Amino acid sequence: MSTPAPASTESTARAKLRRRLRPYYKMEAANVVLVPLIACVAVLADPAGVIRPAMIAAMVATSFLLVVGTIAWKMVVDGLEGNRATERTWVPRLDAARWPSLALILIALVLTGMEAAQTLPAWPGSLIAAKILVVLAILEYINYYHYQLQHFDHAADFARLMSGRGFRRSHLSRAIAAWKAAKNPRP
To answer: Which of 1, 39, 72, 112 could form a disulfide linkage to 130, CB 3.0–4.6 angstroms apart?
Structure first.
C-alpha cells in the first residue's frame, strides 16, 4: 500500500500542472482564428487562388472543434484551480455539440470530395487547404471526444505512448462519461 503524497508535494505538482496547461486553452482560442487565416493567406498568396465552398466548410468544421477544445482545456485548468463550475456548465453543452461537430466534418468531407471530383488531376490551393483542414477537424474531434492524440509536448505522455500503453481517453471524454454516469446512476 502506498502512502499518499504530502499536501505540499501534491499542491506543488498541481501548481506545476496548472502552469503547464493554462496556455493550452489560450492557444486553442487563438487557433480558432489563426488556422483559417493562415489557410486563406496561403491560398490567396497565389494570384489564381480562390477560396471555394469546400475550404470554407473545412474552416468552419476545424474552428468549431477548436472552440470545443478551447472550452475543454478551460474546464481542465479551472478544475485544477478548484473551480468545477465551468465543467458543470459546459460538459452537457459539449456533449450536445458532438453531433454538430460530426455534421460539420461530414459536410466538409462531401464538399471536398465534390471539389476533388471537379478539379483533379489539378490541385488548386483551395482543395489542398480543404483536405488539410478536414483532416485537422477529424483529428481534433478524436482528440477531444475520444482519445488524447497530442503526445509530443509532455515527456510523460510521450513515454506512455512509446511504452505501448496506447492513447489515453481525452479529458473531455472522461468528463462527459462522468456526467452521464452521475445523471443516470445504475440501480
So the answer is: 112
**Grid cell for residue 91:** 460538459
* Cα 67 to Cα 70, 126, 163, 184, 185, distances in angstroms: 5, 23, 31, 27, 30
Nearest to 72 by CA among 25, 14, 34, 137: 25
Gap between the Cα atoms of 80 and 104, Å rounded: 31
Q: What is the pTM of this model?
A: 0.84
Q: What is the pLDDT of residues 10-37, one digit of tens each?
A: 578 777 777 888 888 899 999 999 999 9
For residue 54, give the nearest of 101, 104, 111, 109 by alpha carbon.
111
CA distances (Å), origin 177, targets 70, 145, 171, 172? 19, 10, 10, 8
Q: What is the CA angle 28-33-36, rounded to 5?
A: 110
Q: How far is CA 128 from CA 9, 32, 132, in A?
A: 49, 19, 6
